[in-house]
Amino acid sequence: MPIPLLLGLALAALPAPQAPIYDAPVIKIFDLQKIHSVPLDAQVMKRTEANGVVTEEIRYTAMPGIRAFAYMSYPAGAKNLATNVQVLNSRAESRRGEAEVGFVGFCAAAPSGNTDPNKQDTVGGAKPTETFMADPQKDWIYQHVVIQLRALDYLATRPEVDMKRVVVSGFSWSGFVVALMHALDNRPACYVTWNSTGYYADEKGFSGIRGADDKSLITREQYLNYCPSAYAQWGTQPIFVSNALTDYFATLDGAIIMFKNLKSPKRFVWAPNRYHADTARHEYMSSGPYMWQWQGNGPKTPTVNQGAFEVKDGKLLYKYYIEGSENPTRAEVMYSYGNPGHWIGRTWHRIPAVLDPKQGYVAEIPVYDPDVPVYVLGQIETKSFKASGNCPDLYIPKAGGITAPNATYPTMLMDFEDRDDLYFGRGIPEFVGKAAQGQYCASVEPFEDGTVHLLNIEPFLWKDAKELHFFLKGDGKPGPLTLYLVRNSQYALNKDDKSSYSAISIVGPTETFAEGWHEYAIPLDKVRDLKRVDSLWFDCPGRNLVIDGVQLK
Predict the structure, then answer these.
(1) φ and ψ at 79, to 5 degrees?
(2) What is d(CA 239, CA 149) in angstroms, rounded to the nearest whole number?
(3) Which of 52, 221, 328, 337 sits in a 20 to 30 Å window from 43, CA-based?
(4) Rounded to an integer, what distance in angstroms lies between the CA atom of residue 530 and that of residue 524?
(5) pLDDT band at 493 (very low <50, low <70, confident <90, very high)
(6) Please, which residues have CB within 8 angstroms of residue 34's CB and are 6 or more apart in sequence?
(7) d(CA 139, CA 129)
């Protein structure tokens, strides 16, 4: 049975913390000397040992007024072990699983506004809604970063921890915190983030969330004070960054700026056409091999060098080289048409790149309109190291000398014969037989809000199309089932904003969706502001959406 030990006294015998190493005592809003000078006053409040694993509940002072709560787990009797620090958006979680496989696991709770010292939670601090504040001392982001920096101070006092083999990781807002830590503390071996590069605002406050001239969700001052890409130049330790290319939080412009500003070793991995998630290829799992390269002296992971464009015989070629010990199982190019901005509603296409002994990996990018810019990047996958990509580049075909289209836009947008979830922004597809046409159709489990989002909708490139056709398979269940042709996609559809969509009722609230396949045709001349439509959202709560043959006629 576990034996809990309640320890209410400070740990008097702790060694002095290992000093953090940084090039400047103050980096923007972070006064590092002041932050690290606050006494930790650490206490182990509870210690439990079971099956050779020790788990401790710990409190320490992060900054005046904030008493952090954390879990720490490690094998009994451990010394100088590799350590994983998991940063979360809210309360701490036990890291016993890390200890069971021979690591030290540590997790400190984010600030939450909690004032109850009896809760297993951090006491004091801002609420998660209090971000990008004028006063950093009152800001959730700032406080969360400080809590985690002080966690490293605490870990440096523990004999169980080898500070040269610490990895700090986080997803979304907690990864945002981790990416900031990368600039502020170079004791860890590596930092790992997923969907975490955050927003961007240029000198005029623009980001292009919806279009090239759209204001950012934050001001330029907020960007400079709080966003990781504005701090990236100070980081020295390796960092893994994985983003969804159409993410609403880790927007593409911020990710590109971060890639270019980083001076440390880095590895970027991209997931196309997703909102805050990866595809069925599980691109985000590529973090493991990179982490182990630095934490465990594992094999070096491959590098995808920055690509180059070439115009040859009216064709647009993109070329890149790779450095690594293992040949790729996939070498591809991803590309997205349209002006800068409109980050969430962009469609990303994916095609193979072919190895040329003299030029590296090469792919031809179709040019449907030479005036339309295109973002392009290279990404590979290997058996051992998973995915690795380079930085997206923007190219205007006409500026490179291409004066006419060299390809015809396909009329079949999605037939699902390749059984690829590439164009599913939301929803989990399974590719099944008995299709309306061809061999396969998609049976899609909706997102938690009951919607399925399909991309590959680019009306600004369509020529002479009169109707959008698709097949849906009825299930004999009652409605409703509604299609929204969405303009300027965002994370969620604001149904009160009629300018952001056109709604088409497929099955009314009092109707039954008759079993069998049904073909639907949407006259494009009836769709308001068609050129700005970027996705199809099917609102189908309580049922899978079975769809096939999305095409232009």
Answers:
(1) -140, 135
(2) 16
(3) 52
(4) 7
(5) confident
(6) none
(7) 9
If asked whether residues 364 and 381 sit together in one domain, one would say: yes
pLDDT at 22 over 70: no
Say yes or no: 257 and 336 in one domain: no
Residue 17 pLDDT exceeds 60? no
Is the bond preceding 480 in cis, omega lying within 30 degrees of 0?
yes
Least confident of 179-193, 337-351, 464-478, 492-506: 492-506
Q: What are phi and psi of 513, to 5 degrees?
A: -80, 100
Place of tokens 């965002």: 490
pLDDT classification of 489: cutoffs 50, 70, 90: confident
Token digits for 407?
A: 């390809």
Parent domain of 438: 412-552
Q: What is the 3-state secondary structure (H, E, C) of 310-348?
A: EEECCEEEEEECEECCCCCCEEEEEEEECCCCCCCCCCC
Neighbours of 427 (CB within 10 A): 22
Q: What is the pTM of this model?
A: 0.93
425 three-state secondary structure: strand
**What average pLDDT score do residues 239-257 get?**
96
> Is residue 51, in this structure, part of any structural domain at all?
yes
Q: Three-state SS across 31-100?
A: EHHHHHHCCCCCEEEEEEEECCEEEEEEEEEEECCEEEEEEEEEECCCCCEEEEEEECCCCCCCCHHHHH
Parallel/antiparallel/unpaired status of strands 467-474 and 516-523: antiparallel
Q: What CATH number did the domain enclosing 456 receive?
A: 2.60.120.430
User: pLDDT tens for residues 334-369?
Assistant: 999 999 988 999 999 999 999 999 999 999 999 999
Token reading at 33: 């000397």
- Separation CA 351–CA 335 (nearest Å): 9
Length of the chain (residues): 553
- SS3 assignment for 488-509: CCCCCCCCCCHHHEEEEEEECC
Q: How far apart are CA 199 and CA 333, in angstroms?
A: 25
> Burial letters for 464-490: b for 16+ Cβ neighbours within 10 Å, e otherwise?
eeeebbbbbbbbeeebbbbbbbbbbbb
Look up residue 136 and give its two tokens.
Answer: 């950093």
Domain end marker among 343, 373, 400: 400
| CA nearest to 276, candidates 429, 388, 148, 172 | 172
Residue 1: the pLDDT is: 32
Indicate the residue type of 210.
R
Side-chain-side CA neighbours of 424 within 13 Å: the count stands at 26
Predicted local confidence at residue 25, as pLDDT: 86
pLDDT at 141: 99
pLDDT of residue 495: 87
d(CA 540, CA 65): 48
What pLDDT is stored for residue 220 in this prediction?
Answer: 96
Ramachandran sector of residue 427 (left: φ over 0; alpha: ψ -120 to 50; beta: rest)? left
Domain CATH for 159: 3.40.50.1820
Residues 40 and 153 in one domain: yes
Distance (Å, whole) CA 353 – CA 162: 42
- Is 466 within the bounds of a domain? yes
Give CA–CA dist 331/378, Å, rounded: 8
| 275 and 392 share one domain | no
